[in-house]
Amino acid sequence: MTYGSAIMFVVAGVLGIVGTAMLLRLRSPSVTEQQTYAFRMIGIMLTSGAIVLAMSAAAMWQWSTET
Questions:
Q1: CA atoms within 13 A on the CB side of 33
Q2: Where are the alpha helices (DSSP H) in the chain?
Q3: How far is 27 from 50, CA to CA, in rounded Å?
Q4: pTM for the full model?
Q5: Which residues have a Cβ under 8 Å from the Cβ of 16 and sit 6 or more positions away?
Q6: Residue 67: predicted pLDDT
Q7: How far apart are CA 41 and CA 63, in angstroms?
Q8: Consecutive H or E run containing 27
Q9: Per residue in 36-45, pLDDT tens?
Q10: Which pLDDT score, from 0 to 100, does residue 58 have?
Q11: Where are the transmembrane segments (predicted)?
């Protein structure tokens, strides 16, 4: 695995954890309406960003091993 791919996987993991934590925070009854909107938007964006970044890292890793 290349150094760049490893960094991309680590960043994808962090984004996924933070995004999932924000989405799970919505289960709390003390979340206000404004927080609900923000947590939904940011959580979905971070989680989807993590998925896309992990797929890109996997493709980069595969391409680097083909040579």
A1: 0
A2: 3-25, 33-65
A3: 22
A4: 0.85
A5: 46, 47, 50, 51, 54
A6: 61
A7: 33
A8: none
A9: 999 999 999 9
A10: 94
A11: 6-26, 38-61
Q: What stretches in the chain show pLDDT beneath 70? A: 67
pLDDT at 65: 85
Look at the block and give the residue holding tokens 């791919």.
5
List b or e across 29-58, with b for residues whose CB sees 16 or more CB atoms inside 10 angstroms.
Answer: eeeeeeeeeebeeebeebbeebeebbeebe
**Tokens at 58, concatenated:** 């996997």
Is 61:5 a contact under the CB 8 Å cutoff? yes
Q: Among all chains, which residue has been given the structure tokens 């206000």? A: 32
The residue written with tokens 């960043």 in the block is 11
Measured between alpha carbons, how far is 10 from 5 in angstroms, rounded to an integer?
A: 9
